[in-house]
Design a protein that fits this description.
Layout (H helix, E strand, L loop, with lengths): L42 E3 L2 E3 L15 E5 L4 H11 L3 E5 L13 E5 L4 H18 L9 E4 L6 H4 L6 E5 L6 H8 L1 H18 L4 E7 L21 H17 L3
Parallel strand pairs: 3-8, 4-7, 4-8, 5-6
Antiparallel strand pairs: 1-2, 5-7
Helix pairs in contact: 2-5, 4-5, 5-6
This protein binds zinc ion.
Amino acid sequence: MKNLFECADGRNFKFAKPQAVFRAKTLPGGYSVTPNRNDSAIRLIQTTVAFVGTQCERGCTLASRYRSVCYRGDYRKRLEKANLEGAICYVEHHFNSSENKCAAYTCALVVSSATPITKRWARAYCRCVAERLGTTMRNGDGVVGLLPGDRGFSNIAAAAMPAMLIEPLFVSNVGHARIIRSREGRLALAQALADSIAEVFPNGGIVGLSVGHKYRDSRPQERGASVIGGGNEADLAESVLILAADILEGVG
Ligand SMILES: [Zn+2]
């Protein structure tokens, strides 16, 4: 177990006020705060604990290890900005769509030459989605390697950090669409993403977020595929990313 949060000076956070109950299991990635007599000020929000803003025994205010940045503009420009800012990881959120209404699997796309840590993150993400939503992972572990020219390749290829394009569910599948349209479903997807980041990038840093099909300079009206029952791919993917950012930053 490792402390997910720390004080601004890098020391482990110890809560100032006396005693509250918490469950280590509820922290993203299984992380825990070392319990002691002074542990307190912990409130549970969904399955994640929000610590941010509370005061430690030395009086400094707790900040999360993670800061999320939503990158906008054309895909290439987003990657250049994320590279420049030194993001620790980068995720572009899409949903899948198929003519075959039965198609239903979870996958994460990475460039085929991706580093082992990138592939590990993609596997962890797909596993977290499958565990929370009971989905089937494509090719066993959900990871798809992209070659130059493949759909999605240029969305992530110029990333200097581990990058993946996620398609956890199908907007064209009735059951999947129902999950995507529900807040609980999107929260489960957000938790899966946050869990995978906490697991693979435990030291924190800037988490780069990109909404597929939205905020592109060259195609500002685009919103991706329509979701069965209402809504569109891009707006619902954005909703998941906002929830994931809140979990990672401990805002709830
Ligand atoms: Zn898409």
